């Protein structure tokens, strides 16, 4: 069946600690324009309404900053992803900060409540905190905990207000009551910057993390094939690509939380090509491009666009 793509543009950065990732989509479009590429004219798109003005509001929660607004934004993303899938499109989600992934995953699960979802999380960070454990209170570090329905209370170090607890419970149940993905169906690629609370949770839930060194030592194709085999029982796969999975020293510091010694762009493209070949990919998301932090012009967005364009070509040819 022919793949019909729809672009979902979510220009929101209220889940991050640093401003600017809301401009990532515009930076991607500028990268295409500068290459005389009409990619963004080739596919239908939908803009998700944002709540970025709330950044000026004083946050009432230190353990989960602006959680009431992030909850609303994730609900919006969930609705758009759900309807996009139900209309028969393949959603390519372009977002600001990574809290959006909860909305995307919730939308996939809402569209296919009886299906089992596998998740490839390509990122420098585990994003496995909760309001009970987060040292920063930034919700872009929490989407997987909400999607997994895991609070990690064993590692609690924050006092969480009743209102925040209520909002967090709602976040865990967006679009579908209960977890959107099971720990055994989640695989990390490139995670290398974690806190002790996350490390303990990764161990407790037995989540596999293919670190950059392992991927290079054992072979990228071997590691991706192993991860796909692990997801053999999954009906569909969601790929979440955070650009900070890339090596910031090689590519760019144009992201909110850059971490050295990451993947090079060719490795990510090869990874995505192999995942697409499984014929199970239902959605992909690109996040955390921040042109305000880019010391090389628009290099991060240019690199991400090259990966996006190559992924799209592979998807349409599969």
Automatic annotation (TrEMBL):
<protein>
    <recommendedName>
        <fullName>Arginase</fullName>
        <ecNumber>3.5.3.1</ecNumber>
    </recommendedName>
</protein>
<dbReference type="InterPro" id="IPR006035">
    <property type="entry name" value="Ureohydrolase"/>
</dbReference>
<comment type="similarity">
    <text>Belongs to the arginase family.</text>
</comment>
<keyword id="KW-0378">Hydrolase</keyword>
<dbReference type="Pfam" id="PF00491">
    <property type="entry name" value="Arginase"/>
</dbReference>
<keyword id="KW-0479">Metal-binding</keyword>
<comment type="pathway">
    <text>Nitrogen metabolism; urea cycle; L-ornithine and urea from L-arginine: step 1/1.</text>
</comment>
<dbReference type="InterPro" id="IPR014033">
    <property type="entry name" value="Arginase"/>
</dbReference>
<keyword id="KW-0464">Manganese</keyword>
<keyword id="KW-0056">Arginine metabolism</keyword>
<dbReference type="InterPro" id="IPR023696">
    <property type="entry name" value="Ureohydrolase_dom_sf"/>
</dbReference>
């Amino acid at each position: 069946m022919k793949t019909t793509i729809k672009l979902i543009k979510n220009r929101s950065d209220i889940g991050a600690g640093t401003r600017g990732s809301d401009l990532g989509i515009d930076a991607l479009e500028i990268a295409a324009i500068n290459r005389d590429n009409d990619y963004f004219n080739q596919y239908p798109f939908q803009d998700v309404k944002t709540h970025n003005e709330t950044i000026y509001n004083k946050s009432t929660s230190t353990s989960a900053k602006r959680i009431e607004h992030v909850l609303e934004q994730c609900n919006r993303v969930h609705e758009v992803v759900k309807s996009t899938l139900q209309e028969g499109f393949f959603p390519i989600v372009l977002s600001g900060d990574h809290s959006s992934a909860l909305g995307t995953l919730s939308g996939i699960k809402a569209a296919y409540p009886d299906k089992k979802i596998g998740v490839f999380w390509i990122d420098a960070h585990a994003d496995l905190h909760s309001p009970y454990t987060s040292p920063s209170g930034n919700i872009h570090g929490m989407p997987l905990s909400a999607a997994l329905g895991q609070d990690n209370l064993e590692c609690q170090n924050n006092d969480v207000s009743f209102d925040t607890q209520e909002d967090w419970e709602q976040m865990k149940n967006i679009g579908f009551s209960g977890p959107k993905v099971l720990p055994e169906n989640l695989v990390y690629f490139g995670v290398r910057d974690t806190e002790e609370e996350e490390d303990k949770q990764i161990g407790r839930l037995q989540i596999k993390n293919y670190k950059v060194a392992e991927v290079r030592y054992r072979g990228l194709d071997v590691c991706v094939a192993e991860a796909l085999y692990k997801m053999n029982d999954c009906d569909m796969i969601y790929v979440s690509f955070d650009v900070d999975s890339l090596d910031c020293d090689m590519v760019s510091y144009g992201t909110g939380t850059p971490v050295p010694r990451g993947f090079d762009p060719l490795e990510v493209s090869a990874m995505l090509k192999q995942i697409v070949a499984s014929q199970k990919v239902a959605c992909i998301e690109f996040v955390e491009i921040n042109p305000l932090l880019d010391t090389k012009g628009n290099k991060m967005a240019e690199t991400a666009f090259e990966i996006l364009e190559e992924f799209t070509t592979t998807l349409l040819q599969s």
